[in-house]
Design a protein that fits this description.
Keywords: Membrane, Transmembrane, Transmembrane helix. There is one protein chain. This protein has 29 helices and five strands. With about 650 residues, the protein is mostly helical. Among the domains are: about 170 residues, no CATH class; about 110 residues, no CATH class. It starts with about 25 loop residues before the first helix and ends with a strand.
Length: about 650
């Protein structure tokens, strides 16, 4: 039996709202305006400000008129709010209240009230359908799966052992806490951010960080700084949440493109297959190594692929969503902007006749998006050496056989659907992602080196776009059947429905096996030391954890803080351990920026590292020795240079 799908099919000529709009009575408007400010004030006073973002999401979704199902409406509303949050961060950085929940929620509610009054709309939501549960369930399952090592860790040291797998976690955590302390983007007040956040992060795209800091302030119902353990736990939650949002975006986009070719069993098979690929592929690395900004930026790019290939029925909603997604990508992960520009340019050309119906809206949204989207990129290029960083990082050696398999499967569906506009548009989006990745590969070949770190990022984008196109395989099947009538027909239809569900479950199991979820072998497996496995399997096994550095970090945090102006440095005779522990200790003590000279651009092994530290830091230094061997390293340094004793001290951690 054919069931409703969670997708929206744009009609050839989408209806526009009638010109006449009912006006709101003045008394009612004033009453709602008072509620828009009193409600957040009471919620904050009761410690329930964490509910306000959900209320704003529901109100935004209720005022939209695009999207046929509840999940469609919520996804579109989330896209609008993500872009609006990134843009409004500039306002939060300038006004005197920073990220305080009451003025933020009050202003947002007032804007929504103004939109409702101007359009004459009343909030209303479509009913959910069964297929809505599939992307939501997939996102929750994927998030819990990769959060499991953190959830099973018993204490701070246990969670640190996994968080320290990727040192980027320390820098992103410092940026989130720095934004909470500054009350806005770090680049708007570099001096205030100098102690808390590392200097390179001041001009790094901060869309994820500001969003996480804002939501964290709502959740805590407080703008006060958090303790080390609390700050780490909340950051890890937002990082895993960004990954879950990425899985939600990919599965929803895949269903949206497949459209009427999906019934509920097919939607289950498609969602399960895409989720298995997300967990089994290198996309799981986003949680392992700490890439939350890329998670948000890639999710926004995937949603942009979906709404430009199968546009929203309402032109106004479509224009606003596209503009908001562009801003989100620009503020979250600007590397994807070339592909975003290609997607938007193609959409503007294809839908130019439709867009002419809303010239005023287009004249407002597009220039604003065009100015805001590249703003972080321009600021970073002017202030930092971001272009030079493209050729840095370790070598990238991807599993091209996995990409070949996906290209073959999606390509087979595209051949069948080549006459359908949605799949012709998707083919163009896939070509843009492929050309983008190929351009980086050729760039590194021209340099005469192996492809580097950022080439891997282009492959992440290509992989996500391929997974979005997995719904093209439904074109190889007959259209979903119509329900039959009659007792015998109903009995046969029931047996056929049972068979379709069984096939869907079997396909999900097959895709989980091909992705290597049960044992870590499969299409995406790659070498990890002496073992070949997937990122998720290595993560779950605990082989990537760093219990030794985590224990040293926990012991250092348990000690009384150093005197103001003193830099704390952990010393270990194990290569790179002192650097890593010092990095996380400084971050969790809110001094990542002030400790920067003692962390970066120094030797990673002792005794050269300690000697370089005293040369790089002119002020007081407190060395924390991880063991007896580390203590001797510092004592030998002080014996050779006794003049350092006036500003250098050493303490034993254990």
């Amino acid at each position: 039996m054919q069931s409703q799908s969670a997708t929206v099919v744009a009609p050839a000529g989408p209806p526009e709202p009638p010109p006449g709009r009912p006006a709101w009575p003045t008394r009612r408007l004033v009453g709602w305006l008072v509620a828009a400010w009193v409600g957040p004030l009471l919620a904050y006073a009761a410690g329930l400000a964490g509910l306000l973002p959900l209320v704003l999401l529901g109100l935004t979704a209720g005022l939209l008129r695009g999207g046929r199902t509840l999940l469609d409406r919520l996804v579109l509303a989330g896209a609008l709010l993500a872009g609006a949050t990134c843009a409004a961060g500039l306002l939060f950085s300038a006004w005197p209240w920073g990220l305080h929940p009451v003025p933020v929620a009050g202003t947002a509610s007032t804007v929504l009230l103004g939109i409702a009054a101007a359009t004459g709309r009343r909030p209303g939501l479509p009913r959910p359908v069964a297929a809505d549960a599939l992307p939501v369930g997939a996102a929750l399952l994927a998030a819990v799966a990769l959060a499991w090592p953190y959830l099973r860790a018993g204490d701070l040291a246990g969670r640190l052992a996994y968080a320290m797998t990727g040192e980027d976690n320390s820098r992103h955590l410092a940026t989130v806490e720095g934004i909470r302390a500054v009350g806005g983007y770090l680049f708007t007040d570099p001096q205030a951010a100098a102690r808390i956040a590392p200097e390179p992060m001041v001009w790094y795209p901060q869309g994820f960080h500001l969003t996480a800091a804002l939501l964290d302030t709502f959740l805590r119902s407080s703008t006060a700084p958090a303790g080390p353990a609390d700050a780490l736990d909340h950051y890890l939650g937002w990082s895993v949440g960004a990954w879950g949002l990425l899985v939600l975006a990919v599965t929803w986009a895949a269903q949206r493109l497949a459209g009427p070719w999906l019934d509920l069993p097919r939607a289950l098979a498609l969602t399960g297959a895409v989720t298995a690929a997300c967990l089994g592929s290198e996309l799981a690395r986003f949680v392992v190594y700490g890439y939350p900004g890329e998670s948000l930026g890639l999710a926004a790019t995937v949603l942009l692929v979906a709404v430009t290939c199968r546009p929203v029925a309402r032109t106004g909603t479509q224009v606003a969503v596209v503009g908001a997604l562009c801003v989100t990508v620009g503020f979250a992960y600007l590397m994807f902007l070339p592909v975003v520009a290609a997607l938007v340019a193609a959409w503007l050309v294809r839908d130019r006749r439709r867009l002419r119906r809303r010239p005023r809206l287009l004249a407002v949204v597009m220039p604003v998006a065009a100015v805001l989207t590249p703003l972080p990129a321009v600021a970073g290029l002017l202030r930092t050496d971001q272009v030079d960083n493209v050729a840095t990082g370790g070598g990238v050696f991807p599993r091209y056989d996995a990409f070949l398999a996906l290209v073959g499967l999606v390509g087979a569906g595209l051949v069948v659907g080549r006459r359908l506009p949605v799949w012709r548009r998707y083919a163009g989006a896939l070509a843009a992602a492929g050309v983008f990745a190929a351009g980086f590969l050729l760039y590194f070949r021209a340099l005469g080196t192996d492809p580097r770190y950022y080439y891997g990022k282009t492959l992440h984008l290509l992989l996500a776009v391929l997974l979005v196109g997995a719904g093209a395989l439904a074109l190889l099947l007959p259209p979903p059947g119509r329900p039959a009538s009659g007792r015998r027909a109903v009995g046969g239809a029931g047996r056929r429905a049972g068979a379709r569900w069984a096939v869907a479950v079997a396909l999900v199991a097959a895709c989980a096996g091909a992705a290597g979820l049960p044992r870590g072998t499969g299409l995406f497996a790659q070498p990890f030391g002496h073992r070949v496995t997937t990122w998720a399997a290595a993560w779950w096994s605990g082989s990537l954890a760093r219990p030794g550095p985590a224990a040293s970090t926990a012991r250092a945090l348990a000690r009384p803080p150093a005197a103001p102006g003193t830099v704390t440095v952990v010393v270990s005779d194990r290569r790179r351990e002192g650097y890593l522990v010092t990095l996380f200790v400084a971050t969790l003590q809110g001094a990542a920026g002030a400790s920067g000279p003692a962390v970066y651009r120094l030797p990673l092994a002792e005794p050269a590292r300690s000697a370089a530290v005293v040369a790089a830091v002119p002020g007081p230094i407190r060395f924390l020795a991880a063991d007896a061997a580390a203590t001797r390293i510092v004592e030998d340094l002080l014996a050779a240079r006794p003049e350092l004793r006036a500003r250098v001290s050493v303490e034993r951690l254990s």
